[in-house]
Each structure stands twice: as structure tokens, then as C-alpha cells.
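Sample 1 of the test manifest.
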Amino acid sequence: MKKLLCLFLCFSIPVFARKFDGLATTPPMGWNTWNTFASNISETLVEQTADTMVASGMRDAGYVYIVLDDTWMAMKRDANGDLVGDPVKFPHGMKALGDYLHARGFKFGIYNCAGATTCAGFPGSRGHEFQDARLYASWGVDYLKYDWCDHGTANGPETYRIMSDALTAAGRPIVFSLCEWGQNQPWLWAEPVGHLWRTTGDIYASYDGINKWSSGWKVNLDKQVGLEKYAGPGHWNDPDMLEVGNQGLTLAESRAHFSFWCLLAAPLIAGNDVRVMTPAVRDILTNKDAIAVDQDPLGHQGFRFLVDTKKGVEIWAKELSNKEWAVCVLNTGKAPASLTVNWSDLTFLDAQYYKVRDLWSKKDVGTAPTPYTATVDSHDVLFLRLTPSN
Amino acid sequence: MKRLLPLFLCIASAGFGQKFENVAPTPPMGWNSWNTFQAGINEALIEQTAEAMIANGMRDAGYVYVNLDDTWSAKERDANGDLAGDPVKFPHGMKALGDFLHARGFKFGIYNCAGSLTCAGFPGERGHEFQDARRYASWGVDYLKEDWCYTGTANAPETYRIMRDALREAGRPMVLSLCEWGQSRPWLWGGPVAELWRTTEDIYPSYNRVKQILDLQVGLAGYAGPGHWNDPDMLEVGNGSLTFAESRAHFSLWCMLAAPLIAGNDVRHMTPEVRDILTNREVIALDQDPLGREGFRFRVDSKNHVEIWAKELSGGEWGICLLNNGSTPAAYTVDWQDITFLSGQYYHLRDLWAKAPVGRTPALYTTTIAPHDVALLRLKPGY
């Protein structure tokens, strides 16, 4: 009916809202239940995690979003069609959990899915978007991760716009994290829709392993090449959450993983059991110099500058504010190697002299253009910050 | 996240529902506010229309759905995100209107749109499907026409399945009428989703438009059947520039198509001639035949500007419609030996507008058809 009317009206009425602006001006940082706990989540776990993140310094280092992933809810909506938290896992309800987190300086993140059911088979948001957004707002939710299982033949951009509009209509500023695994090239259309979007399938705790639906961090890293121009303040490529400290990665691999995610301006969403992590893992996650690369207000995503498969070296770089640069040098080989950075080869550097600081040793290590040489373990990195100097 | 999980679970969990069974075993019949009244609707109009449909015999002829089209709702949803009727147009609310209709033997139809707004700019269904379906069920709604404005790049089959699932979950059996103008060829996927689906863009009351839409039905007959109907749009009988003959031809052909018969005129003020078209029970019986076959175009005689349409009926009977598409009267003779789909040799012929027997096969049938008029016959096997 009434196509004629639409011809007149469809162009004159603003149909689609825009996401909340001013959120995620730097990549979101926090913790998510999935990578370690999958469906074994509860109020106690989340509260202990929050308390630990205060004690371990993670919160103060910037990890403020505590995000429940899939399986937080009851298997059925209530008689009004509203979602409810799993009454066994969350006996005090979701609002109480949000209050607990807010009282401790955290923000509250939650998960759902654009399909009829979530990936784990819980009620999805399909056809309930506005109702669910209103409920999340009433619980004090600050962050929504939105998955893509069970979506049938739905159109990705259009479907994510529905939830984006629903969040806007609900009126509470909520970071909207799109998780459609990069299938619809969200970097091309999601900037007005959400604040971050997954670019790949799932990560798992491996350097370069490949499973059917998940891959090691180096595989995800390689898929970021070429996407750097689509990221910026308020709209970030998301190469998936952190596996730092999880079984399957050496300490060097965890450190390199973290360094690269910082270089990518990736969301830093820890996925380990922060209640029992080692001091070494904690020191990776809370290295403020590394985090500062990620959170640099310029908001540029790093890019791959050089791949030398013969030498087993990759060099990545990220432009920072005030003409500073971060450079990451990866030993892709299986043995420790002595790596030399010839600064004059890095053609993007436009100042003559830079002070060079190693962000892991936390030491100044010379001045560019004097070449810098260091021994790097297998799958480990040099993570350097360059500051122009006279 | 978690693409591993769905492999196991999506198969096990019933992600998608089914439409209600048996809510439209024959094509729906009723009345809709749009073609005549558009935005000028209100409670008094609907109630007067319902009363008139009782008095003029329409209800008893089968027109039981009284359907509000676009503009019935308030411009904004309430604080809970619920739809509400326009409080000026429908001061007693939508439930009260449904109760009024139900008390008089009607069913209550309503309209919305799969997009973010309706075509007229009222709140659409997008993202509110389950909430709205529950609302409609609470009002006693029996029929939902679901339009396709403001849908952006949405995928029509998937989007309409959301509403199908929402109605199912709300639990009240409702006819779901898809109105995406045939853009995504709904006849290919609409069967498990809805009871009827528009096959074209809108009708308007001119013979040429009626004929254009008729032509667009060619080839679609195989997709219709009990519970799943092609919808060539609502009736313009008695409207606009249509002559009496054109209204009668329009109605005859819609019945041949097993089309939904949704009147769109002001039934409070129609002429006896228009009433007689809409309430001709023998013609309606073609439409409502329980076999549920849609008619097909058998022949186009472009020299004489005559088309022959045929519809198989139950009991081995047939409906035959001869349309004079020309601008002068057509004298036309049917040689039944040419009508190759007839399996029997002997049929009694009945003219459904003259309401009289007009011979039997295999004797030639000759008639003169006025411009844009039809000869509408029912063939019954027998000596």
C-alpha cells in the first residue's frame, strides 16, 4: 500500500537515528566473562572479579567495563516479553549487579544477539530490540555486545541499525559493540551504528593456530591490514578480546599480543581470570605506557609497515599525538633473534631525531636515527615509543 | 563470538515458529478503510460501516473482516513503547472497537508496517514486533496487514518472518497479510510466513490499472492455495472512474483469481448496483470455492480484444470469464472443443450475472460483451 505516499514522505522524515556520540572516544577497556568462563558465570564471579580489578590496579589502569557475555539470562522471557537474568546465577537481579559495579567505579556491560536466539540458545533480541534496550537502560547498562547467531537471512547493516536506534530511543548512552565477525565488512557501514565492530571470527589462546571458527591472535592481527583507515575516536575495529594470560600462550606471546592490540587501537577487553593471574600477567595488562599507546587521543590505528619472512620480522607502527610514534617489532621466528631497526628505513618518520623508549623494559634505549639492536624471543616484540627531540 | 556453539544449538533450538494453521482456508473477505478514506478514519466511520454491512447483506455474504488501514495509531508510542490508537479518532480505544465488531459478527483487522514508520509516517513495527503482536492480541485483533515502507535495506522474507513469529508467540490466531508490493516475489517464500501477500504495487480506481494488475497475475496461479493467497490488492468496486461494467469485470476477475475480496468503497452510501456486485453470492462462490485454485489466463484473442480466464472449482466444475478488453462491444463465440482443459464433454452453463442457465456444451456459446465488461460462466458437469 501507499508507495505513492512513501515517495513524498520517505525522503522528508528522518528515519534512522544516530548512535550516541561522545562515547568510546578512545578504545573501550574492560573485562568480559567469555574467554575464560563461557557459561560458568555468576554474580559472585563478577563481583569477585570487580573487587580484584580494584585491588590489582586494573580498574585504575582504565579497565572499567565489566561485560557479561552470553548465558547471563533465563531461558525464557517473562509474560511481558521482557528478558530476565538467570535467577540462579544472578539471584539479586541485573539491576543490583549494575549498582554493585557502578558503586565501585565500573561500567556495566551486557550481551545479546541480533538473531532469534543467542549463540548459546538463550532468547535473542530479534523483534524485541526496543523493549530490550529500554530494559537494559533501566538496569543501568553502559555497554552492549551484540552477536550474530541465528539471524537467518537478515541483512547485517539493517539489523544492527535496529538495535542502534533502539538504544538511542531508550535514552541511556550505551556503547554498542557489533559482533558479526566481519562478515558484512562492518568497517564500511558501522560508523554511524556502533562504537566498535568485530573484524574477524573468534580469537582463542594461541599464537597462530586456526580452528574452524576461531584463530590465534597473529591470524586475527594479519586480518587487520588495510582496515586502519576505518578506525578513529568513537568507531573502532575490534580484532576480538584479549587472551593475555590464558593457557595456550607463552608469556612472550601474551606480551606481544597485548602490544599489538595496543598498536591497533583495539578495544582492550581482558579475558583471563583476573582473580588468580600471575604478577607477570598483571604487569602486562597494567603497563600504563603500553595502554597509553592504545588510548592515545589521536585515535589512529597502527598499520603494518614491513614483513620480512626471511628474517622472521614484522614492523608495525602507530601514529600518536604530538608527532610521536609507537613501533612494534615482532620476531615471527621460532628462536630468539637479534633484531635491528634501521630508523632511516621507516619512511613515515618525518622528524630528524627521536628519543626511543622501550615500553616493556621501561627504559630509554637511544636516539633515532641511530639504529637500535636488541635480542627478541620467539613471538616476542620490541615495543618502542618515539618522541621527537632536538 | 561463539560461532562454535550455534552449530550445535541452532539445530536443536526451534529458532523460528510457524504461522497459524487454517485461519484463511478460503480467501479473506472484508472491508478496508484505505481506498476511500485514507487518513480520514475514526470510530464512528468504522461503526457505521459495520452497521451498514449488516444491513446491506455484505456481512452475511462473507465480508467479515473490518480492517483499519494506516493512520489509526497515535503519532508516538507510549512510555513503555506500546502502540496506542489515535485518541481523537478512536476515543474509546482499539479494544473497544474490536469488541464492537466482534459483538456484531465481524473480525477486527489492523494495519502496521515492517519499517521504522508506516507509509503515512506513524510508528512502524521495526524492532517492536513481539511487543506489538502482544498488544494486538490483547485488543482482539484477527487480521494484520503489514506494509513495507521505511524498511531501508532489510530483507523482506526475514523481516516478515519476525512478525510471523511474533504473532505466533502472542498466541491469538491472526491472518497475516504481507504488503511488500511483490518486490521480493513473496509467492516464492510467503507460504510458510503469511496467509496472503500482495503481488503488485497499489491499485487505483481506473480500468487500466485494474487490467495492469490483472496481467501481472499471469503465471502466479500455482503459488496460491488454501491458507496462502496471492493478493492483487483490494477492491475498487464502486470507486473512482470505474463504470458499472468495469466494476463488475474487476470483481469477476478478482473472484476468478481467488483473490482476497476486501471492499474499499463507502458501503454506507453505495448504489444498489454496486451492492449487487459485491454481494452476488454465485460470483463470490467462485472466489470462495474450497478447492482454492487460482484462475489462469487461457487465451488472449487480441483480434477481438477478448481474454478467456478459467478457474477450476471443486466437483469438476469450472468458472470461465470472458473479458472484453476493447472499447466497443464484442460479439464472441466459444467453441468448447477449443477449451482444452475441460475433461468432460457435457457441462451445463450458467451466467452468474444474469443468474440464468445459458445452454450446455458442446453447443457453441455466443454472447455480446460490452466494453470492459465480462461474461462470467459456471460450468457444471452433466447432460
